[in-house]
Write a structure and sequence with these properties.
This protein is α+β, with helices and mostly antiparallel strands and 453 residues long. The chain has one domain: Clam (outer membrane lipoprotein receptor (LolB), chain A), CATH 2.50.20. It is 16% helix and 29% strand. The longest helix is centred in the first third of the chain and has 18 residues. It is globular and about 60 Å long.
């Protein structure tokens, strides 16, 4: 009897351990496809049947001629002519290639339109990211019910995804450089088009992507993030510091804030999930920054499949320093004359709030670019199952690295007729990717010094 009990206990313990871990399901034959019929990051290399999506041939591999480091990015596709424009009058003709959110915006706003250009598969990353993706593909696995990832470092963890969670983790761990320093603007735009620009200094240390990083050295901290408000004066000096967890189930995100009026550093566990985003006037949640960030534990993630959709892409015109912020901001939506949309294949993932979990968004549909694993669009539903908000990531290839990342995020509130424009940089210096940070730069003890006005 004792032996039987011991055997049962051992089996139960093994089962319990395996319950929290999903073994990698990518075979050697699948890995061999990377860099062949699939791109090195797992996208379909070939174009589509009718030629409206071309073959991926490496993306942008060098800056345009004449580009100098530090200047606003020149548009490598500036000579492209629009193919057609989608507005309310011809919406039905293009519905099958539009997200639900874009369809609704075209129905609601007579001044809204999508100008569609030839598809340019510009996404690319350094060779070491391709190499790392191939290296970790066979060993990376979801753990703790999908709330964390083990075995991954530097590369895309699931280049041939089998689940919605794997696709979302690809977004969370995609390449965004190693160390980034930026000046960005955020505008919470009223229904009438008024706004006060909030200016941020942002520092990011993407530890996950650092050259020579190992799983052991990485531990459970994948990103260090610091955001300091520099304008307007009434908000200046406020700081947010985040240590982003690789596995929030084992150790949640750590966050702190500095209040210049009180000159105090406080723990900030509320910088997560559906708490309001910093100075966003309630137009986005904390987990909407970067289109989606943070823990995945409050949703069930369903992989719907892949579709061809018109999505924001190669947004060099909206990024241009020839434009002022007032050229971009308009009532109800940004000025569509400066936006570019292209036909791309996107993964579709439905996130549905788990029973018993709490979030102001009951459901979200994510549209993720197959070439970069960047979330391009999000349709967001309230607790009545009504479409509430629509998010867009207007990406460019920051070709000095290279990497694909939004130059502008737009979070539309369709029920209020308002929107948040995040990442405005037309009037600011360009992001710097060669900054060298020290460990102390991201310690809570550094906030008081950094917050001095």
């Amino acid at each position: 009897m004792i032996a039987l009990c011991l055997r049962f206990t051992a089996v139960a313990a093994l089962a319990l351990a395996l319950a929290g871990t999903a073994a990698a399901e990518i075979s050697a034959d699948e890995i061999a496809r990377l860099g062949k019929d699939l791109t090195p990051l797992g996208a379909e290399r070939a174009g589509n049947a009718d030629g409206t999506i071309p073959e991926w041939t490496g993306g942008i591999t060098k800056p345009p001629e004449g580009y100098q480091l530090g200047e606003h990015h020149r548009d490598p596709y500036g000579n492209d002519k629009p193919l057609f424009v989608i507005d309310k009058s011809n919406l039905d003709k293009y519905r099958d290639k539009l997200s639900t959110g874009h369809q609704r915006m075209l129905e609601l706003y007579p001044t809204y339109k999508l100008t569609v250009y030839p598809t340019r598969r510009s996404a690319s990353v350094p060779q070491r990211i391709y190499d790392a993706t191939r290296k970790i593909a066979a060993v990376t696995k979801l753990v703790d019910g999908g709330n964390g990832v083990d075995g991954a470092v530097i590369g895309i963890p699931f280049p041939i995804p089998k689940s919605g969670l794997e696709v979302i983790w690809n977004h969370l761990l995609r390449y965004r450089g190693e160390a980034v320093s930026c000046t960005l603007g955020q505008a919470a735009v009223t229904r009438g088009g008024d706004y006060t620009l909030v200016k941020y200094a942002v520092d990011v240390n993407v530890r996950y992507s650092l050259p020579g990083m190992t799983v052991e050295k990485l531990g459970n901290t994948m990103i260090l993030f610091k955001q300091r408000v520099t304008a307007p004066a009434r908000l200046a000096g406020g700081i947010v510091l985040v240590h982003e967890a690789m596995n929030p189930a084992r150790q949640p995100r750590q966050a702190w804030t500095y209040n210049p009026g009180q000159r105090r550093v406080r723990r900030a566990p509320g910088i997560a999930y559906d708490n309001p985003g910093t100075t966003s006037d309630g137009l986005r949640t904390a987990d909407q920054f970067d289109m989606f960030n943070g823990a995945v534990d409050r949703y069930d993630w369903k992989l719907v499949g892949k579709r061809e959709l018109y999505v924001p892409y190669n947004a060099y015109r909206a990024h241009s320093d020839k434009l002022a912020f007032d050229d971009i901001i308009r009532p109800l939506h940004v000025n569509p004359e400066h936006l570019r949309y292209e036909l791309h294949r996107v993964w579709i993932v439905d996130a549905t709030l788990k029973e018993g979990a709490s979030h102001i968004y009951k459901r979200r549909t994510f549209y993720i670019d197959e070439d970069s694993w960047q979330i391009m669009l999000v349709d967001i539903y309230d607790n009545r199952d009504q479409l509430w908000r629509v998010s867009e990531g207007h990406v460019i290839n920051f070709y000095e690295k290279p990497l694909t990342w939004p130059t502008l995020e737009i979070h539309h509130d369709l029920q209020a007729g308002r929107y948040l424009a995040l990442g405005l940089d037309n009037e600011f210096r360009m992001c710097t990717y060669d900054v060298e940070y020290k460990a102390r730069d991201f310690k809570p003890s550094s906030l008081r010094r950094a917050g001095r006005r």
